[in-house]
Protein backbone atom coordinates (compact mmCIF):
# COMPACT_ATOMS: atom_id res chain seq x y z
CA UNK A 1 0.00 0.00 0.00
CA UNK A 2 1.37 3.41 -0.96
CA UNK A 3 1.55 6.19 1.61
CA UNK A 4 -0.61 9.23 1.37
CA UNK A 5 0.56 11.80 -1.19
CA UNK A 6 2.36 14.93 -0.06
CA UNK A 7 0.16 18.04 0.05
CA UNK A 8 2.56 20.56 -1.50
CA UNK A 9 0.67 23.60 -0.26
CA UNK A 10 0.92 22.26 3.30
CA UNK A 11 4.57 21.40 2.67
CA UNK A 12 5.27 25.01 1.66
CA UNK A 13 3.51 26.29 4.77
CA UNK A 14 5.53 23.89 6.93
CA UNK A 15 8.73 24.83 5.13
CA UNK A 16 8.22 28.53 5.85
CA UNK A 17 7.47 27.67 9.48
CA UNK A 18 10.62 25.50 9.72
CA UNK A 19 12.73 28.32 8.23
CA UNK A 20 11.26 30.78 10.76
CA UNK A 21 11.92 28.27 13.55
CA UNK A 22 15.51 27.82 12.40
CA UNK A 23 16.08 31.57 12.15
CA UNK A 24 14.92 31.89 15.74
CA UNK A 25 16.72 28.85 17.14
CA UNK A 26 19.66 28.09 14.82
CA UNK A 27 20.98 24.91 13.26
CA UNK A 28 21.75 23.23 16.57
CA UNK A 29 18.00 22.81 17.12
CA UNK A 30 17.49 20.89 13.88
CA UNK A 31 16.10 17.58 15.01
CA UNK A 32 12.65 16.16 14.44
CA UNK A 33 11.13 16.35 17.90
CA UNK A 34 12.06 19.94 18.84
CA UNK A 35 11.12 21.27 15.39
CA UNK A 36 7.83 19.35 15.39
CA UNK A 37 7.00 20.52 18.90
CA UNK A 38 7.87 24.10 17.98
CA UNK A 39 5.54 23.93 14.98
CA UNK A 40 2.76 22.07 16.78
CA UNK A 41 2.93 19.05 14.50
CA UNK A 42 4.19 15.51 14.85
CA UNK A 43 7.65 14.37 13.85
CA UNK A 44 5.88 11.95 11.50
CA UNK A 45 4.30 14.91 9.71
CA UNK A 46 7.74 16.42 9.10
CA UNK A 47 9.14 13.10 7.87
CA UNK A 48 6.15 12.71 5.54
CA UNK A 49 6.67 16.17 4.02
CA UNK A 50 10.47 16.36 3.98
CA UNK A 51 11.90 12.84 4.05
CA UNK A 52 15.11 12.77 6.04
CA UNK A 53 16.48 15.44 8.34
CA UNK A 54 19.21 16.11 5.77
CA UNK A 55 16.61 16.56 3.02
CA UNK A 56 14.70 18.95 5.24
CA UNK A 57 17.87 20.93 5.89
CA UNK A 58 18.55 21.17 2.16
CA UNK A 59 15.13 22.63 1.42
CA UNK A 60 15.34 24.92 4.45
CA UNK A 61 18.64 26.34 3.18
CA UNK A 62 17.22 26.74 -0.32
CA UNK A 63 14.16 28.59 1.00
CA UNK A 64 16.30 30.77 3.28
CA UNK A 65 18.64 31.66 0.41
CA UNK A 66 15.77 32.49 -1.94
CA UNK A 67 13.93 34.46 0.72
CA UNK A 68 17.01 36.54 1.54
CA UNK A 69 17.87 37.17 -2.10
CA UNK A 70 14.30 38.23 -2.97
CA UNK A 71 13.99 40.56 0.03
CA UNK A 72 17.33 42.21 -0.66
CA UNK A 73 16.61 42.49 -4.39
CA UNK A 74 13.28 44.15 -3.58
CA UNK A 75 15.12 46.67 -1.38
CA UNK A 76 17.44 47.61 -4.26
CA UNK A 77 14.53 48.32 -6.58
CA UNK A 78 14.40 47.84 -10.34
CA UNK A 79 17.57 48.42 -12.37
CA UNK A 80 19.92 49.81 -9.73
CA UNK A 81 23.54 50.56 -10.56
CA UNK A 82 26.12 48.51 -8.66
CA UNK A 83 26.65 51.21 -6.00
CA UNK A 84 22.91 51.53 -5.32
CA UNK A 85 22.53 47.75 -5.28
CA UNK A 86 25.43 47.35 -2.84
CA UNK A 87 24.03 50.07 -0.56
CA UNK A 88 20.58 48.43 -0.56
CA UNK A 89 22.11 45.04 0.21
CA UNK A 90 24.15 46.48 3.08
CA UNK A 91 21.20 48.36 4.54
CA UNK A 92 19.06 45.23 4.61
CA UNK A 93 21.71 42.79 5.73
CA UNK A 94 23.03 45.05 8.51
CA UNK A 95 19.55 45.86 9.83
CA UNK A 96 19.50 44.65 13.47
CA UNK A 97 16.15 42.95 12.83
CA UNK A 98 17.91 40.65 10.33
CA UNK A 99 20.67 39.44 12.67
CA UNK A 100 19.10 36.08 13.44
CA UNK A 101 18.47 35.41 9.75
CA UNK A 102 22.07 36.13 8.84
CA UNK A 103 23.45 34.15 11.76
CA UNK A 104 21.56 31.18 10.35
CA UNK A 105 22.80 32.01 6.86
CA UNK A 106 26.45 31.97 7.94
CA UNK A 107 25.97 28.84 10.04
CA UNK A 108 24.39 27.17 7.01
CA UNK A 109 27.18 28.42 4.77
CA UNK A 110 29.76 26.85 7.09
CA UNK A 111 27.85 23.59 7.21
CA UNK A 112 27.57 23.54 3.42
CA UNK A 113 31.31 24.08 3.09
CA UNK A 114 31.88 21.07 5.35
CA UNK A 115 29.63 18.85 3.21
CA UNK A 116 29.75 20.35 -0.30
CA UNK A 117 28.32 17.28 -1.99
CA UNK A 118 25.26 17.35 0.28
CA UNK A 119 24.70 21.09 -0.16
CA UNK A 120 25.86 21.52 -3.75
CA UNK A 121 22.73 23.43 -4.76
CA UNK A 122 23.14 25.93 -1.91
CA UNK A 123 26.81 26.44 -2.74
CA UNK A 124 26.08 26.72 -6.47
CA UNK A 125 23.66 29.59 -5.87
CA UNK A 126 24.95 31.40 -2.79
CA UNK A 127 27.45 33.40 -4.84
CA UNK A 128 26.14 33.09 -8.39
CA UNK A 129 22.74 34.66 -7.61
CA UNK A 130 24.45 37.80 -6.35
CA UNK A 131 27.18 37.68 -8.96
CA UNK A 132 24.62 37.67 -11.75
CA UNK A 133 22.55 40.43 -10.17
CA UNK A 134 25.52 42.70 -9.49
CA UNK A 135 27.05 42.15 -12.93
CA UNK A 136 23.74 43.19 -14.47
CA UNK A 137 23.83 46.35 -12.33
CA UNK A 138 27.09 47.49 -13.89
CA UNK A 139 27.52 50.95 -15.31
CA UNK A 140 26.94 51.11 -19.07
CA UNK A 141 30.20 50.61 -20.91
CA UNK A 142 31.79 48.54 -18.15
CA UNK A 143 33.45 45.48 -19.58
CA UNK A 144 32.34 42.05 -18.27
CA UNK A 145 35.67 41.31 -16.55
CA UNK A 146 35.55 44.56 -14.57
CA UNK A 147 31.89 43.94 -13.72
CA UNK A 148 32.75 40.46 -12.42
CA UNK A 149 35.68 41.79 -10.39
CA UNK A 150 33.52 44.55 -8.87
CA UNK A 151 30.68 42.12 -8.09
CA UNK A 152 33.15 39.77 -6.40
CA UNK A 153 34.51 42.61 -4.26
CA UNK A 154 31.02 43.76 -3.30
CA UNK A 155 29.91 40.26 -2.27
CA UNK A 156 33.09 39.53 -0.32
CA UNK A 157 33.22 42.92 1.37
CA UNK A 158 29.58 42.98 2.45
CA UNK A 159 29.73 39.40 3.74
CA UNK A 160 32.97 40.14 5.57
CA UNK A 161 31.57 43.31 7.12
CA UNK A 162 28.42 41.46 8.12
CA UNK A 163 30.41 38.64 9.73
CA UNK A 164 32.41 41.25 11.66
CA UNK A 165 29.21 42.98 12.78
CA UNK A 166 27.60 39.73 13.89
CA UNK A 167 30.75 38.60 15.71
CA UNK A 168 31.58 41.86 17.47
CA UNK A 169 28.37 43.87 17.61
CA UNK A 170 30.52 46.95 16.98
CA UNK A 171 27.97 48.67 14.76
CA UNK A 172 29.67 52.06 14.78
CA UNK A 173 33.06 50.78 13.57
CA UNK A 174 31.63 48.38 11.01
CA UNK A 175 29.12 50.93 9.70
CA UNK A 176 31.95 53.43 9.27
CA UNK A 177 33.93 50.89 7.23
CA UNK A 178 30.84 50.00 5.19
CA UNK A 179 30.17 53.66 4.45
CA UNK A 180 33.75 54.11 3.29
CA UNK A 181 33.42 51.14 0.94
CA UNK A 182 30.01 52.18 -0.39
CA UNK A 183 31.12 55.77 -0.94
CA UNK A 184 34.10 54.53 -2.94
CA UNK A 185 31.74 52.49 -5.15
CA UNK A 186 29.61 55.57 -5.79
CA UNK A 187 32.58 57.56 -7.08
Short description:
Helices cover 77% and strands 0% of the residues. The chain is an all-alpha fold and 187 residues long.
SSE topology sketch:
Blueprint: H1 8-25, H2 32-39, H3 43-50, H4 53-76, H5 82-93, H6 99-114, H7 120-136, H8 144-168, H9 171-186
Helix pairs in contact: 1-4, 1-6, 2-3, 4-5, 4-7, 5-8, 5-9, 7-8, 8-9
Structural account:
The structure is a single chain. The protein is mostly helical and 187 residues long. The chain has one domain: Tetracycline Repressor, domain 2. Helix content is 77%, strand content 0%. It contains nine helices and no strands. The protein has helices spanning 8-25, 32-39, 43-50, 53-76, 82-93, 99-114, 120-136, 144-168, 171-186. α8 packs antiparallel against α9. The longest helix has 25 residues, at 144-168. The radius of gyration is 19 Å and the shape is elongated. The model has no long low-confidence stretch (mean pLDDT 90).
